[in-house]
Structure formats: C-alpha cells, structure tokens
Amino acid sequence: MFQKILIANRGEIALRIQRACRELGIPTVAVHSTADAEAMHVRLADESVCIGPPPARESYLNVAAILSAASITGADAIHPGYGFLSENAGFAEMVEAHGMTFIGPSPAHIRMMGDKIAAKTAMASLGVPLVPGSDGAVPDVETALAVGKKIGYPVLVKAAAGGGGRGMKVARSAEEMEDAFRIARSESLAAFGNDAVYIEKYLDRPRHIEMQILADSQGSVVHFGERDCSLQRRHQKLLEEAGSPAISPEQRTALGETATSALRKLGYRNVGTLEFLYQDGQFAFIEMNTRLQVEHPVTEMICGVDLVREQIRVAAGNALGYTQDDIVFNGHAIECRITAEDPETFMPTPGRVTAYHAPGGLGVRIDSALYAGYFVPPFYDSMVGKLIVHAPNRLEAINRLRRALEEFAIVGIKTTIPLHQKIIEDPEFQAGDYTIHWLERFVAR
C-alpha cells in the first residue's frame, strides 16, 4: 500500500479522497492556491503545500508545482480526483516518470478515451453499440453535408476532444449545417486546442445512462450498476439517480456485461464510466470518463462500496478480491448537486457563507467542504456540495430528499437548493418520466 498520497484537487472531492485515505491509514498531502488557504481540505490534511495564485492554470493545473509538492513531501502516489488534471494523459505520464503512481487508468487509455473519435472506434471494435454517425473526424462542410444526408437530420456536430457541452452544435437541416460545423470547430479549437469534430445522429428524447466499472491489473472487471444522469442543463448534470427509473434489472445486467467485457478486452484498470444514450429500448455509447465521477456517491449508496478506496487499492496492485456475483444492489439513491448560483438566472454567486447547517438522519449524506465563515471563491467550479439520499425504493428516496432539502441551510450566498425543491415536486420527475431535454424546458417555464 502507498506510504503517502498527494491529492491534486480541491473542495469536496479532495475532502472525499482524504477520508478514504484516513480509513486506509495513509497520510495525505493537500495542495492549494492562495485563494484556498483556509479551505477544509487544507485544514484536515496531514500536510499542505501552496502551489500558486488563484487562477487554476497557475495552481491546480500547474504540473511542475504539483510534482514538486509531491517530491518535497515524499508522496509516492497522486490522486487527481475529477476535473483539473484527472484526464490529462501527459500529467499521468509525468507522475509515473517521477517514480510515483497515478491513481487512475494508464496514460494510454486516458489518451484513447479523451479523443471521442478514438473512443468510439475502440468501443465499436469491442462490440459496444454506437449512435449512428460519421466514420471518424469530418474534415469539411461538404463531408458534413454528406454525413447528414446519409444518417438523416437532425444531427449533432461534436468536438473530438470535447466535454461539458463545448464544441457541440445541433444542425436540424442541411441549411443549418454550415454554421453548426463552423461554430463547433471554432469552439473546439478555443476550448481544447483541437478543431477536429465528428457527427452523430441527434436523438430527440434520450436518457443519459452511465455504467460504473472497476478493473484491477490482474484482468478482473466488475460493474456497480447504472446511474441516470438525464437531468441536465446545457450538458451539465444537476441531479442523478441510481438505479435508473427507466431501466429494468435485466437491462442493467445486459449493459453491465457489455461494458465489463469491452474493458476486459481493452486491458483497462481502475475506475471508469461508460456513458450511453438510451432511447426506444436501445443503448448507444457516446463516451467514456477515465476518472472518478462527481456522481459516484449514488453508486456507493446502493452497492455499499467505497469507490475511492477501491481506486487506491487497485492502483497499489491489489486484486479486487470479489466477483460480479458478490455485488448486491440495494434500494434507490438520488444526488443533488448544490451550486453557488442564483436558482433562477444561474449566475455564479461567490461570497461568504455566514451560516451553514447540513441535514442528517438515516440515509442522508452530505459531501461538501463548506463551513460557516468560508468564502466561496469566484475562480473555480460553482459546485459547493452534494446532497445524497438513500432509501429502500424511489418514492421513499424522494420523500427523504424533500425532507433533507428543507433542512439544508446555506446562508450568505444564493444556491440551487430552491431549484431542486421545485424539480422533485414536478409530477413528471416523480413519475421518472424525463429525458436529457426535460430540464431545459422545466427551467424555461
């Protein structure tokens, strides 16, 4: 097992990783910007190192500073969390080149899955179903028009190196293709330094279903079921459920077998999430995330497994020690992402938290680094916490979530708690009848 782990992240995920390390008896090193000097993950770490000023590019994305911090503190492993450098293959390579372990997949698999075209090609070769689309990158408008004619409109023009909705445009007809193609390429180049785009069929009412997997270096691969992440605004998830109210146990088993078989053949290791669109009873792969997901707690709640602990164990070379038959799915879990945003305009609301009270009770979990007196900085992602509930079934989980949201008090800044309260009272949500387009219409009412 590792002697010391440096956590190359901040906020609630850094705190989450610290907790897993502490239970494993592993000391931790926190890195932080000057803006995060009083952050909870810094306060609770065994050691901390300031790695730069507030802008992320000068601190949390500063590879040289992070590696130096690991070196001077004697860390033998680095956990990247999610975001920042978590899916940066070059960073993973540099960690290994410095004699430390990167707690995640191999650099080769990070690089493969970071290129959406390469990821789709690899998955197709392994028997994973895809959304109909172009064969690789689309070099020009003429080719884009030919693809659109072949698969039928509407279509989605997507950045090959994309994520988070950037470099993604819908063309509903041939007349719209030129502008969609040009804008998607331009946004992709600005956001990712890569203007390669591809095209796939735009589905009008899909759900976003993802499958959580874990693999060790001995070839064992298991899945921990699906999450429904269809409640999104501008391709950003707001609420997630495990399992999906739209998926049967038989579909879960079949999708899990497809995912684990593919990653076993690929020789993948550590955690990963395969993301699918689901419509009319059919699943279609769209991308893979080679890291821990923000929404991993809902999976932990229904499976009773600590995914961060498992990441650390398999990165240290340990075998899983269990099989798919040992994994039992229990009840239903829902997660609300709480962000420092105006619940109506979605404008960021950084500022000082003057009072803070977290809900509690059976089946309620809070993953947050907030505390009374903490100043939410304006430099980073606006998510300040996650409220997760677990209950024997979905109806009881919604009732528990309603009660927990009523108890949750964050004073001094505006948050999206009121929005979540409205969402869970909607009859369509309560019936589980929603798609990835539902929330956009809901907030526009």
How many separate helices? 15
CATH architecture of the largest domain: 2-Layer Sandwich
Rg measurement, Å? 21 Å
Number of domains: 3
Structural classification = alpha+beta
Largest beta sheet: strand ordering: 13-12-9-10-11-14-19-17
Which fold name fills CATH's third level, the topology of the largest domain? Answer: D-amino Acid Aminotransferase, Chain A, domain 1
Can you count the beta strands? 20
Distance N to C terminus: 53 Å
Overall pLDDT: 96
CATH C-level label of the largest domain: Alpha Beta
Strand composition percent: 25-35%
Low-confidence stretches: none
Share of helix, binned? 25-40%
The 3D shape can be described as globular
Major beta-sheet overview: 8 strands, antiparallel
CATH homologous superfamily classification of the largest domain: ATP-grasp fold, B domain
